[in-house]
Amino acid sequence: MSFFSKLKEQFSRKEDRDKYLSGFSKTKESLARKLSRFAFGFKGLTDEFLEELMISLLESDVGVETADRILESLKEKTRSLDHPDYDTVIDLLVESMMELYQQTEDPVITLNEEGCTVILLVGVNGSGKTTTCAKLAKKYRDEGKKVAVVAADTFRAGAVDQLKRWADRLMIPCVAGKEKRDPSSVLVDGCRYAKENGIEVLLCDTAGRLQNKANLMSELAKMRRVIQKEIKGAPHHVWLILDATTGQNGMTQARLFQESTQLTGLILTKMDGTARGGIILAIKDSLHLPVYFIGLGEHEEDLRPFDLESYLYSMTEGIVHDAG
Ligand SMILES: Nc1nc2c(ncn2[C@@H]2O[C@H](COP(=O)(O)OP(=O)(O)OP(=O)(O)O)[C@@H](O)[C@H]2O)c(=O)[nH]1
Ligand SMILES: [Mg+2]
After folding, report:
1. Four-residue CA torsion sign, 38, 44, 47, 52
2. What is the mean pLDDT of the chain?
């Protein structure tokens, strides 16, 4: 069974496959449309084929350096083959993409055994931080953990109410500060509340930041400092919430946040929209940041653990005509 067929088989058993596929429609169209015309009368890795492959990877937001690496790996894999056919080449292409993602292992998410696990959610405006905060709260609550959220976005009017509404609906406590209050002091309140009430997972929603480096650095650094003082080892996780539809700009955001604070992982939101997905490969390749979850909608249940097989299948579906 080919590599691609195995992916397809695994994918066919996933319950979210329709949502995954709809989110990748743009990518698929590009990759499939451009490449499948080479299927008949395939002449191997010609310059024309490689150029189209490069263009379609770029159109999927894979980024130049990562696309280059995928192409190099593909060339290497086909070097010893005598006239590989189209399906074989596509199979090796998908394999190359998988190996690229797997070049560094994704650490599993560990919770603080000795007390509360503090998770800080950061990202640019509108990326989905508050919604994801609610989704994560639901996930951990459903797993039987004692969960609370902290509304540390005191910057945007209405932000606190937005998180409070989610918390009410999920029936979990929300620690909130008044508008314009120092977000770090709200975080301190949140940590203290967690300690006093035996909270196991404390999810901290922060204000959307423009990509303004100086501000970002100082405020995030302060947040870290104050949390550290309250709970040992905190923040245990700092996750960047990235809107998957923003394309290559996501790469710039990830780099900037990585420089400003020690990110431990990523959550890609809006993968149900017109995401092109390649950004995941680009970020993993250059920053070695694991993608832990993906957002597939606006509701609290629309969060899924990132699944490499489904992701790769959704990105490449349709390139091979008969992968069965
Ligand atoms: N389709 C879709 N929409 C999403 C997803 N996640 C968030 N949204 C929507 O994106 C918009 C912004 O989400 P928020 O959670 O408010 O984003 P934020 O990062 O907290 O925004 P700021 O606090 O203003 O920086 C809202 O309309 C959400 O419903 C997702 O996975 N899929
Ligand atoms: Mg918000």
Report:
1. positive
2. 89
